[in-house]
Each structure stands twice: as C-alpha cells, then as structure tokens.
Design brief:
Strand order of the largest sheet: 1-2-3-4-5-7-10-11
Low-confidence stretches: none
Radius of gyration: 19 Å
Number of strands: 13
Largest sheet: 8 strands, parallel, barrel
Mean pLDDT: 96
CATH superfamily: Glycosidases
CATH topology: TIM Barrel
Bound molecules: beta-D-glucopyranose
Strand content: 15-25%
Length: 399
C-alpha cells in the first residue's frame, strides 16, 4: 500500500456534450445528424439540469473531486456574443461542487466547438487563436475558487475531429466513425497532421497564458496517453515516429505547465504500417480495445519522461463494460500500477475515473464507462457498486 500525499484528489470526470443534452449550437450537433455512423446526443442524460444530483452522488460516496467542462457553444452562441446566463450556470456548478466538498477540475474545451467557429474556418482558420482566447478570457471571470483548469482535452484525439470539421460547410458526410471506438478494421484514427498539432499547441499556450494572467489556478491540458509499443524489435523506428506524431508532440507542449492530465485506457501496438488493428477477443472492451489495466502505469511513466517532470493528475482512466465487477477489477489493477509509478518518485496529484456517469460516447450509447447508470427515459440515476468501491478507496488515504 502506498500512502498518498496530502490533498490527493479522488474523483470522476465528465464532459459537457456527453452529459448535458440539447447542445444545439455545437458542431457535434451537426455531425451527429450527418453521419450514418452516429446516433444523436439529444437530451444526453440531462445533466445540464441535474448536475447537482450527480455531484451529490459522487460526494456522498466519498469522492473529493469532479471534473466537468464548460461548453463554449453555450457561452458564446454567436461570435463575440457571450451569454451571461450560461456563465452564471457554470458558476453555479462550481459553487455547487465547492459546497459539496468536491474540488472542481474545469475543462475549457472538450471536443466540441461552436458551430459558427467551425463555419468561420475552425481550428486551422486565421481567427482560431483569437476566438479561443477571447472565450477563455470570459470564462476566467467565473473561475474564482477553481484550482485546476484544463485548457483543451486530448488534442491528439481532437486533431481527428478537425478533419471531420471540414465537412461542416458542405453537405459532405463525415466519413470516419467515432474518435474513441476501435472499428472492425482496428485503429481508425489517421495521424494528426503536423499543422493541426502545432496549432493546438499554440492554442493551449495562448489559453495557459490567459489563465495564468487572470487566475491563480493551476493550468494544463489533458492528453490521450496511448501506451504505444513496438510489435517487434524491428518496429522500434516506426514506434518512435508514430509516438511523436500521435502523442509526444503534445506532451512536449505540456512542458512548463502546472500539471498534465493523463488519460489512459488501453495499449496499442505499432509496426511499420502504423498502429496494428486489435484482433477480436472476448476480453476486448465495448469500444473494441484490449483489456489492459497496465496502460495507466505505462502512460504515467512515459508522460513523466517526455514532459520532464510535469506533475500529473490522472484526469481519465476507465473501461467500457456492462459488467461492473470487471470495472472494479480493471481499476484496482490500474491503481496498483499507478502506485508503483508513484513509489518510483513520479509526482501524481490525483486520480479521476472516467466516467462519473454512463454517457454519450461520441455517436454511440452502448459503451458504458460510468460509475453511475442512467435510465435515459426517466433520467433516473443508479449508482453502481464501483462508485461505492472507489469512494471507499478515497477514504483510506492509501492506494
Ligand atoms: C475522451 C472522452 C471519452 C473517453 C472514452 C476520451 O477519449 O476524453 O470524451 O468518452 O475517452 O472513450
């Protein structure tokens, strides 16, 4: 057992589009209607109205932190037009978390952008950095008392959605399935284009400077930590190449941050042709990835090395499964690996499980990651045994 540092956070994570519902000004609202692969987010799980109940369940179980996001498409529904009502809404969420004893970890951008922003040219357009910066500036006005701010979620996964965004000004149908699901052909995500990666690093640094200027919060971004490995010795050069383009460029972008949000689920082999499709296997998760709880330890060790020692907050780790016992087993193992990394001196500040609730998995409802089940007709929440289990861990102060 590893004794945890004072203030170590134990919590769960979410993102606005996946739980709120009715995100009609966002780009994803459009993609969902256009893509033959996707089902609609619709009302999602109505957390826009039920966030207090959600937070109460987490706090009652014993968790001490909740990661949630602010939805840009709501806060700035038209270019330069900010909604005071929406800013108040998110301020109320922060107050609710604080009053329940949950440390809020606030994400500024989690995959969705306002539809107008994409139509205007999006992340590769000439206005991108200014637009994002002015949104971040407004949001900083409501962040009083927030200690942890994540600028952009998983730029490496998000780079793929920037390709999808090219379809928004035409009738073209987004060709690729959801960013987080491994299709039958295996790893479906193309490599991020270098200009996209550079632009996202630039956007992160711009947001980081603003958050630092206007708030005392710790600021960082959260990356998809892919735990890539070479299929054979001969594939090592290919691994370095893929790993740089898909992950390390973003970890380098975190140098100088106050923390890095590590997000790990599974591992991924690489050979000379790129990421190797995952063979079908009865142990695979509901998003088609192998069952690899050790991914978290690999991810944390690699991130620590490439960022050159930026403190780590695990902002996502979990498993898509309908079997909650398996979720507990997976998480238990993942935490064992995390504890081993901490024993070796890696500075980890907290563990936030993905996800607080079963939610909209980017076009799909079947993959369930939640500690809490939700009936999508009545919106009734039912905590799973894994929530109580994680809450008990939190109370021990040990890992
Ligand atoms: C994302 C989440 C997603 C989760 C599970 C991460 O890629 O940040 O939005 O639901 O993984 O696939």
């Amino acid at each position: 057992m590893t004794a945890l540092p004072e203030g170590f956070l134990w919590g769960a994570s979410s993102s606005p589009h996946q739980i709120e519902g009715g995100n009609i000004n966002s780009d994803w609202w459009v993609y969902e209607q256009r893509s033959p692969h996707f089902t609609l987010s619709g009302d999602a799980i109505d957390s826009y109205h039920r966030y207090e109940e959600d937070m109460r369940l987490l706090a009652a179980a014993g968790l001490t932190a909740y990661r949630f996001g602010i939805e840009w498409a709501r806060v700035e529904p038209l270019p330069g037009e900010f909604s005071r009502a929406e800013l108040f809404h998110y301020r109320k969420m922060i107050d609710t978390a604080l009053s329940l004893g949950l440390t809020p970890v606030v994400t500024l951008h989690h995959f969705t952008s306002p539809r107008w922003f994409i139509e205007e040219g999006g992340w590769l357009g000439t206005t991108a950095i200014d637009r994002f910066s002015s949104y971040v500036r407004r949001v900083c006005e409501i962040l009083d008392g927030v200690e942890w701010v994540c600028t952009i979620n998983e730029p490496n996964m998000f780079a793929f959605m920037i390709l999808m965004a090219r379809t928004i000004n035409s009738d073209a149908v987004p060709e690729i399935d959801t960013p987080t699901m491994q299709g039958e052909g295996g790893f479906v995500l193309p490599r991020p284009l270098p200009e996209t990666s550079r632009r996202l690093v630039e956007a992160h640094h711009a947001a980081r400077a603003i958050v630092r200027e206007l708030t005392p919060a710790k600021v960082g971004w959260t990356t998809a930590n892919l735990a890539l490995y070479a299929e054979s010795k001969a594939d090592e050069p290919a691994l370095l190449d893929e790993r740089y383009a898909r992950e390390d460029i973003f970890l380098e972008g975190a140098r100088g941050d106050d923390f890095l949000g590590v997000q790990a689920y599974s591992t991924q082999a690489v050979n000379a042709r790129g990421p190797v499709p995952h063979p079908e296997h009865p142990d695979n998760t509901l998003v088609g990835t192998p069952y690899r709880p050790d991914a978290l330890e690999h991810a944390v060790r690699h991130a620590w090395k490439i960022t050159r020692g930026v403190p780590i907050l695990v902002t996502e780790n979990g498993i898509a499964t309908a079997d909650d016992g398996r979720r507990i087993a997976y998480t238990e193992d993942a935490l064992r690996g995390l504890a081993a990394a901490m024993e070796d001196g890696i500075d980890v500040r907290g563990y936030l499980h993905w996800s607080a609730l079963d939610n909209f998995e980017w076009g799909h409802w079947e993959p369930t990651f939640g500690l809490i089940a939700v009936d999508r007709t009545t919106f009734k929440r039912t905590p799973k045994p894994s929530l109580a289990w994680l809450g008990e861990k939190a109370k021990t102060g040990m890992m």
